[in-house]
Design goal:
- There is one protein chain.
- By secondary structure, this protein is of the alpha+beta class.
- The chain has two domains: 1-50; 55-316, Extracellular Endonuclease, Chain A.
- It is built from eight helices and 15 strands.
Protein backbone atom coordinates (compact mmCIF):
# COMPACT_ATOMS: atom_id res chain seq x y z
CA UNK A 1 0.00 0.00 0.00
CA UNK A 2 2.78 2.40 1.00
CA UNK A 3 4.71 1.56 -2.15
CA UNK A 4 1.68 2.26 -4.33
CA UNK A 5 1.13 5.62 -2.55
CA UNK A 6 4.75 6.61 -2.97
CA UNK A 7 4.57 5.67 -6.65
CA UNK A 8 1.46 7.80 -7.19
CA UNK A 9 3.06 10.74 -5.41
CA UNK A 10 6.16 10.47 -7.59
CA UNK A 11 4.05 10.34 -10.77
CA UNK A 12 2.09 13.42 -9.71
CA UNK A 13 5.26 15.27 -8.84
CA UNK A 14 6.82 14.36 -12.17
CA UNK A 15 3.75 15.55 -14.09
CA UNK A 16 3.62 18.79 -12.08
CA UNK A 17 7.31 19.50 -12.64
CA UNK A 18 6.96 18.75 -16.33
CA UNK A 19 3.97 21.10 -16.64
CA UNK A 20 5.81 23.82 -14.71
CA UNK A 21 8.94 23.73 -16.89
CA UNK A 22 6.87 23.45 -20.08
CA UNK A 23 4.92 26.56 -19.05
CA UNK A 24 8.12 28.47 -18.27
CA UNK A 25 9.55 27.50 -21.67
CA UNK A 26 6.43 28.71 -23.50
CA UNK A 27 6.45 31.93 -21.47
CA UNK A 28 10.11 32.59 -22.41
CA UNK A 29 9.28 31.98 -26.07
CA UNK A 30 6.38 34.47 -25.93
CA UNK A 31 8.57 37.12 -24.28
CA UNK A 32 11.26 36.58 -26.89
CA UNK A 33 8.69 36.89 -29.71
CA UNK A 34 7.28 40.09 -28.19
CA UNK A 35 10.78 41.54 -27.88
CA UNK A 36 11.53 40.73 -31.53
CA UNK A 37 8.23 42.32 -32.64
CA UNK A 38 8.95 45.41 -30.55
CA UNK A 39 12.41 45.67 -32.09
CA UNK A 40 10.96 45.38 -35.60
CA UNK A 41 8.38 48.06 -34.79
CA UNK A 42 11.10 50.41 -33.55
CA UNK A 43 13.12 49.83 -36.71
CA UNK A 44 10.04 50.52 -38.82
CA UNK A 45 9.40 53.79 -36.96
CA UNK A 46 13.03 54.86 -37.42
CA UNK A 47 12.79 54.17 -41.15
CA UNK A 48 9.50 56.04 -41.27
CA UNK A 49 10.96 59.06 -39.48
CA UNK A 50 13.73 59.26 -42.04
CA UNK A 51 11.34 59.58 -44.96
CA UNK A 52 11.65 63.14 -46.28
CA UNK A 53 8.58 65.39 -46.19
CA UNK A 54 6.23 62.70 -44.84
CA UNK A 55 4.68 62.57 -41.36
CA UNK A 56 3.89 59.46 -39.38
CA UNK A 57 1.03 58.14 -41.47
CA UNK A 58 -1.27 57.75 -38.49
CA UNK A 59 -1.54 61.53 -38.27
CA UNK A 60 -2.97 61.87 -41.77
CA UNK A 61 -6.60 60.91 -42.23
CA UNK A 62 -9.00 60.97 -45.12
CA UNK A 63 -11.65 63.60 -44.65
CA UNK A 64 -14.66 61.58 -45.79
CA UNK A 65 -15.34 58.03 -46.99
CA UNK A 66 -14.99 57.83 -50.77
CA UNK A 67 -17.34 55.63 -52.85
CA UNK A 68 -15.59 52.78 -54.66
CA UNK A 69 -16.21 54.24 -58.12
CA UNK A 70 -14.33 57.38 -57.08
CA UNK A 71 -11.33 55.65 -55.56
CA UNK A 72 -9.07 57.21 -58.21
CA UNK A 73 -9.95 60.64 -56.79
CA UNK A 74 -8.78 60.02 -53.24
CA UNK A 75 -5.61 61.60 -51.91
CA UNK A 76 -3.34 58.57 -52.21
CA UNK A 77 -0.04 58.52 -50.28
CA UNK A 78 1.67 59.33 -53.59
CA UNK A 79 -0.51 62.42 -54.11
CA UNK A 80 -0.04 63.53 -50.50
CA UNK A 81 3.73 63.16 -50.97
CA UNK A 82 3.51 65.31 -54.13
CA UNK A 83 1.58 68.07 -52.39
CA UNK A 84 3.81 68.00 -49.33
CA UNK A 85 7.05 67.55 -51.30
CA UNK A 86 8.92 70.24 -49.39
CA UNK A 87 7.76 69.43 -45.87
CA UNK A 88 4.84 69.65 -43.44
CA UNK A 89 4.58 72.94 -41.48
CA UNK A 90 3.11 70.98 -38.58
CA UNK A 91 1.38 67.69 -37.79
CA UNK A 92 -1.61 68.82 -35.72
CA UNK A 93 -4.80 67.12 -36.98
CA UNK A 94 -3.57 66.72 -40.55
CA UNK A 95 -6.31 65.77 -43.01
CA UNK A 96 -5.96 64.78 -46.66
CA UNK A 97 -8.64 65.69 -49.17
CA UNK A 98 -8.76 64.67 -52.82
CA UNK A 99 -6.36 67.40 -54.01
CA UNK A 100 -5.09 69.31 -50.97
CA UNK A 101 -3.90 68.73 -47.41
CA UNK A 102 -4.65 70.78 -44.31
CA UNK A 103 -4.05 70.94 -40.58
CA UNK A 104 -7.25 71.69 -38.67
CA UNK A 105 -7.35 73.99 -35.63
CA UNK A 106 -10.01 72.39 -33.45
CA UNK A 107 -9.98 75.22 -30.93
CA UNK A 108 -10.61 77.99 -33.48
CA UNK A 109 -12.65 75.88 -35.97
CA UNK A 110 -10.49 77.04 -38.90
CA UNK A 111 -7.32 75.59 -40.50
CA UNK A 112 -3.81 76.08 -39.13
CA UNK A 113 -2.57 75.76 -42.71
CA UNK A 114 -3.71 74.43 -46.09
CA UNK A 115 -1.27 73.07 -48.69
CA UNK A 116 -1.82 72.87 -52.46
CA UNK A 117 0.21 71.72 -55.45
CA UNK A 118 -0.79 73.61 -58.61
CA UNK A 119 0.08 72.74 -62.19
CA UNK A 120 -1.00 74.24 -65.52
CA UNK A 121 -3.48 71.35 -65.86
CA UNK A 122 -5.01 71.70 -62.39
CA UNK A 123 -5.93 75.38 -62.89
CA UNK A 124 -6.90 75.22 -66.58
CA UNK A 125 -10.50 75.93 -67.54
CA UNK A 126 -12.59 72.75 -67.48
CA UNK A 127 -16.21 72.90 -68.59
CA UNK A 128 -16.87 69.60 -66.81
CA UNK A 129 -16.23 71.30 -63.45
CA UNK A 130 -19.01 73.62 -62.29
CA UNK A 131 -18.43 75.68 -59.15
CA UNK A 132 -22.15 76.44 -58.90
CA UNK A 133 -22.78 72.77 -58.12
CA UNK A 134 -20.61 72.98 -55.00
CA UNK A 135 -22.16 73.44 -51.57
CA UNK A 136 -20.58 74.70 -48.35
CA UNK A 137 -20.84 71.89 -45.84
CA UNK A 138 -19.54 70.81 -42.47
CA UNK A 139 -16.99 68.02 -42.38
CA UNK A 140 -18.78 65.20 -40.57
CA UNK A 141 -15.46 63.50 -39.78
CA UNK A 142 -14.65 66.31 -37.33
CA UNK A 143 -15.93 65.72 -33.79
CA UNK A 144 -19.11 67.78 -33.21
CA UNK A 145 -17.40 69.69 -30.38
CA UNK A 146 -14.89 71.17 -32.85
CA UNK A 147 -16.94 71.39 -36.04
CA UNK A 148 -17.83 74.68 -37.78
CA UNK A 149 -21.32 74.91 -39.24
CA UNK A 150 -22.91 77.07 -41.92
CA UNK A 151 -25.11 78.58 -39.22
CA UNK A 152 -22.01 80.06 -37.59
CA UNK A 153 -21.43 82.24 -40.66
CA UNK A 154 -25.08 83.17 -41.21
CA UNK A 155 -25.71 86.90 -40.63
CA UNK A 156 -22.18 87.24 -39.23
CA UNK A 157 -21.12 89.77 -41.86
CA UNK A 158 -18.24 87.52 -42.96
CA UNK A 159 -17.69 85.36 -46.03
CA UNK A 160 -16.74 81.71 -45.81
CA UNK A 161 -13.28 82.35 -47.20
CA UNK A 162 -11.49 79.53 -49.02
CA UNK A 163 -7.92 78.77 -47.98
CA UNK A 164 -7.47 76.28 -50.84
CA UNK A 165 -9.13 78.28 -53.61
CA UNK A 166 -11.82 76.51 -55.64
CA UNK A 167 -10.28 77.93 -58.83
CA UNK A 168 -7.06 76.03 -58.10
CA UNK A 169 -8.74 72.62 -58.43
CA UNK A 170 -10.39 72.14 -61.80
CA UNK A 171 -9.23 68.69 -62.86
CA UNK A 172 -12.30 66.96 -61.39
CA UNK A 173 -15.62 68.09 -59.93
CA UNK A 174 -14.75 66.31 -56.68
CA UNK A 175 -11.54 68.31 -56.33
CA UNK A 176 -13.57 71.51 -56.51
CA UNK A 177 -16.30 70.09 -54.24
CA UNK A 178 -13.79 69.28 -51.50
CA UNK A 179 -12.66 72.91 -51.26
CA UNK A 180 -16.16 73.74 -49.93
CA UNK A 181 -15.72 71.79 -46.70
CA UNK A 182 -15.86 74.26 -43.79
CA UNK A 183 -12.56 72.83 -42.56
CA UNK A 184 -11.05 74.72 -45.53
CA UNK A 185 -12.76 78.00 -44.56
CA UNK A 186 -12.08 80.96 -42.32
CA UNK A 187 -14.22 84.08 -41.80
CA UNK A 188 -13.12 86.82 -44.20
CA UNK A 189 -14.34 90.33 -44.84
CA UNK A 190 -16.32 90.03 -48.09
CA UNK A 191 -16.38 93.15 -50.30
CA UNK A 192 -12.95 94.73 -50.45
CA UNK A 193 -11.10 91.64 -49.29
CA UNK A 194 -12.26 88.07 -50.04
CA UNK A 195 -14.03 89.09 -53.24
CA UNK A 196 -11.39 91.60 -54.27
CA UNK A 197 -7.82 91.93 -52.94
CA UNK A 198 -7.54 88.36 -51.64
CA UNK A 199 -9.02 87.13 -54.90
CA UNK A 200 -6.37 89.09 -56.81
CA UNK A 201 -3.67 87.31 -54.84
CA UNK A 202 -5.24 83.92 -55.61
CA UNK A 203 -5.41 84.76 -59.32
CA UNK A 204 -1.78 85.91 -59.26
CA UNK A 205 -0.70 82.56 -57.77
CA UNK A 206 -2.65 80.66 -60.44
CA UNK A 207 -1.00 82.78 -63.11
CA UNK A 208 2.41 81.57 -61.91
CA UNK A 209 1.61 78.19 -63.48
CA UNK A 210 1.91 79.85 -66.90
CA UNK A 211 5.66 80.17 -66.35
CA UNK A 212 6.30 77.46 -63.73
CA UNK A 213 5.41 73.76 -64.13
CA UNK A 214 4.86 73.27 -60.38
CA UNK A 215 3.62 75.78 -57.81
CA UNK A 216 3.31 74.90 -54.12
CA UNK A 217 1.08 77.10 -51.95
CA UNK A 218 0.56 77.21 -48.19
CA UNK A 219 -2.26 79.42 -46.87
CA UNK A 220 -3.62 80.12 -43.42
CA UNK A 221 -4.81 82.55 -40.76
CA UNK A 222 -2.88 84.74 -38.36
CA UNK A 223 -3.83 86.41 -35.08
CA UNK A 224 -1.45 89.33 -34.73
CA UNK A 225 -1.01 91.59 -31.69
CA UNK A 226 -2.03 95.24 -31.72
CA UNK A 227 -1.02 98.06 -29.41
CA UNK A 228 -3.92 99.39 -27.34
CA UNK A 229 -4.43 102.78 -25.66
CA UNK A 230 -2.69 101.62 -22.47
CA UNK A 231 0.53 101.09 -24.45
CA UNK A 232 0.36 97.30 -24.14
CA UNK A 233 0.05 94.78 -26.97
CA UNK A 234 -2.92 92.43 -27.10
CA UNK A 235 -4.04 89.66 -29.41
CA UNK A 236 -7.77 90.25 -29.93
CA UNK A 237 -10.07 88.64 -32.43
CA UNK A 238 -13.79 88.21 -32.88
CA UNK A 239 -15.59 84.86 -32.79
CA UNK A 240 -18.82 84.10 -34.62
CA UNK A 241 -21.69 81.66 -34.24
CA UNK A 242 -22.65 79.14 -31.59
CA UNK A 243 -19.39 77.26 -32.25
CA UNK A 244 -17.26 80.41 -31.73
CA UNK A 245 -15.44 80.27 -35.05
CA UNK A 246 -12.39 82.55 -34.81
CA UNK A 247 -12.10 85.57 -37.15
CA UNK A 248 -8.39 85.92 -38.04
CA UNK A 249 -6.84 89.38 -37.98
CA UNK A 250 -4.66 88.54 -41.00
CA UNK A 251 -4.04 85.83 -43.59
CA UNK A 252 -0.77 84.55 -45.04
CA UNK A 253 0.15 82.84 -48.27
CA UNK A 254 3.60 81.30 -48.85
CA UNK A 255 4.44 80.23 -52.42
CA UNK A 256 7.27 78.16 -53.86
CA UNK A 257 7.40 77.99 -57.65
CA UNK A 258 9.62 75.53 -59.55
CA UNK A 259 11.18 76.78 -62.76
CA UNK A 260 11.71 74.62 -65.84
CA UNK A 261 15.36 74.17 -64.85
CA UNK A 262 14.39 72.99 -61.33
CA UNK A 263 15.23 76.24 -59.56
CA UNK A 264 12.98 77.47 -56.76
CA UNK A 265 11.46 80.90 -56.19
CA UNK A 266 9.71 81.80 -52.94
CA UNK A 267 7.19 84.54 -52.18
CA UNK A 268 5.45 85.34 -48.88
CA UNK A 269 2.41 87.55 -48.30
CA UNK A 270 0.46 88.76 -45.26
CA UNK A 271 -2.79 90.65 -45.76
CA UNK A 272 -5.03 92.20 -43.07
CA UNK A 273 -8.56 90.87 -42.90
CA UNK A 274 -10.21 94.14 -43.82
CA UNK A 275 -11.21 96.25 -46.82
CA UNK A 276 -8.19 96.93 -49.03
CA UNK A 277 -8.17 99.35 -51.94
CA UNK A 278 -7.95 97.71 -55.37
CA UNK A 279 -5.18 100.17 -56.22
CA UNK A 280 -2.92 98.67 -53.54
CA UNK A 281 -0.23 96.58 -55.30
CA UNK A 282 0.22 93.01 -54.06
CA UNK A 283 3.94 93.61 -53.58
CA UNK A 284 3.08 95.90 -50.69
CA UNK A 285 2.01 92.82 -48.72
CA UNK A 286 5.21 90.84 -49.28
CA UNK A 287 7.10 89.98 -46.08
CA UNK A 288 10.15 87.87 -45.21
CA UNK A 289 9.02 84.22 -44.85
CA UNK A 290 10.53 83.99 -41.37
CA UNK A 291 8.19 86.78 -40.24
CA UNK A 292 5.20 84.57 -41.04
CA UNK A 293 6.84 81.55 -39.42
CA UNK A 294 7.38 83.41 -36.15
CA UNK A 295 3.80 84.70 -36.13
CA UNK A 296 2.20 81.38 -37.09
CA UNK A 297 4.46 79.14 -35.02
CA UNK A 298 5.13 77.02 -38.09
CA UNK A 299 8.07 76.23 -40.36
CA UNK A 300 7.19 76.39 -44.05
CA UNK A 301 8.98 74.37 -46.74
CA UNK A 302 11.54 73.18 -44.22
CA UNK A 303 12.89 70.59 -46.68
CA UNK A 304 14.31 73.47 -48.73
CA UNK A 305 17.66 75.06 -47.92
CA UNK A 306 16.81 78.74 -48.40
CA UNK A 307 20.36 79.54 -49.40
CA UNK A 308 19.68 77.45 -52.50
CA UNK A 309 16.58 79.42 -53.49
CA UNK A 310 16.85 81.41 -56.68
CA UNK A 311 14.91 84.31 -55.18
CA UNK A 312 12.70 85.38 -52.27
CA UNK A 313 10.02 87.95 -53.04
CA UNK A 314 11.65 88.63 -56.38
CA UNK A 315 15.09 89.36 -54.92
CA UNK A 316 18.05 87.11 -55.57
CA UNK A 317 19.27 85.08 -52.61
Amino acid sequence: MNKRLIKNVLVCATVAASAYYTGKYIERQQHQLEAENSSLAREACIKLERLPALPIFGTVSAAVPIPAQEVNLTATPTRVAQIMKYGFPGLDHVRSYSDFVLSYDRRNRVPHWVFEHLTPASVARNDAVDRSKCEFRADESIHPFFRAQNTDYRRSGYDRGHMAAAGNHRLHQKHCDDTFFLTNMAPQVGPGFNRDSWNRLEMYVRKLTQTHPNVYVCTGPLYLPRKEDDGKFYVKYEVIGANTVAVPTHFYKIVVAETDDQQLEMEAYVMPNKVISDETPLQLFQVPPETVERAAGLLFFDQINRKQLKSINGKKV
